[in-house]
Amino acid sequence: MSERVNVYEVAPRDGLQNESTVVETDDKVAFIERLVASGYRDVEISSFVRPRWVPQLADASEVVARTAHLRDENDVTFWALVPNRRGLDRAVESGLGAVATFLSASETHNKKNINRTVRESLAAQSEVIASAREEGMRVRAYISCVFGCPYEGHVDPDRAVDIAQALLSAGAEQISLGDTTGMGNPAQVADIIGRFKAAGVDLGRLALHMHDTRGTALANVLAGLQSGVRCFDASIAGLGGCPYAPGASGNLASEDLIYMLQEMGYDTGLDLESAAQAGDFIEDVLGRELPGRYHLYHRGAAGSAGSASTASTAGTGRARNSARG
User: Fold this and answer.
1) What are the pLDDT digits (tens) for 148-195?
2) How far apart are CA 270 and CA 21, in angstroms?
3) How many CB atoms neighbour CB 208 within 10 A?
4) What residues are annotated to the active site?
5) Are 310 and 44 in contact (CB under 8 A)?
6) Is residue 104 in a domain?
7) Looking at the domain assignment, is residue 318 inside a domain?
8) Cα–Cα distance, 28 to 319 (Å, whole number)
9) pLDDT per position as a tens digit, 117-155
10) Is 304 part of a structural domain of the chain?
11) What is the CATH number of the domain that holds 39?
């Protein structure tokens, strides 16, 4: 049997949080439905950040409530980002069973993103993780800027190892290592994963969150695969980026990742055509072209096969109703 690689989908949260358009709750729910139908088993559906900070995700509780049936009827885990104890409390109140925390390996980025030192954030996140585990929740933790910082440049990789070990000790089940502005390269990925191995960290508890800002995301994933990592974060059609890091556009596109993994013989458990259709749907909702390479190929192929009238509405909000059907 093929070896399994998990694709952790972040588009409903990491993708939509950076959009100038606030997507309607109905469309978010329809988007998540399409992702579940594609076979995803881990989807990050929203964030319990203060609505004034991220108004695009102000409807987090409603999204959780309206997708609960999908979670209960399918073998899928829905996750949401929580910045602090208040965010965790809101997640608990919503009935969500899995949360993600975040901090940065870079002092400057962490200060701009969370307005705390790394030490302060680590202490606070450790308390949040412990409280979440007491509630019976699953927890993963993001570490941003592991492969470089837009403000500081090089970031000591051993610092990320130390932070990850502290978060694992606090109760996080998985650590997602972020290449927040796409500064990483394959040799660097191999080196950093090697440091985690040397520190005794189980690679089954690591994920890679690569950005394609400089076109290196898939190459970095390949280096991660060769180093033993088997979980990778990605966003449908390349949607999104980090609003607190200059130049952070370019999430790794899920369809590009799925195509590469499946062509290499790995089992993702995902239907590529269904995932691509989910990308078409959210592009129509947003009314702008999304950058994923496979997405652009799929959209072009569908346009060539369709009628002239269908092709003329591709990539615009006018196609929203037909995409929903």
Assistant:
1) 999 999 999 999 999 999 999 999 999 999 999 899 999 999 999 999
2) 28
3) 29
4) 242
5) no
6) yes
7) no
8) 16
9) 999 999 999 999 999 999 999 999 999 999 999 999 999
10) no
11) 3.20.20.70
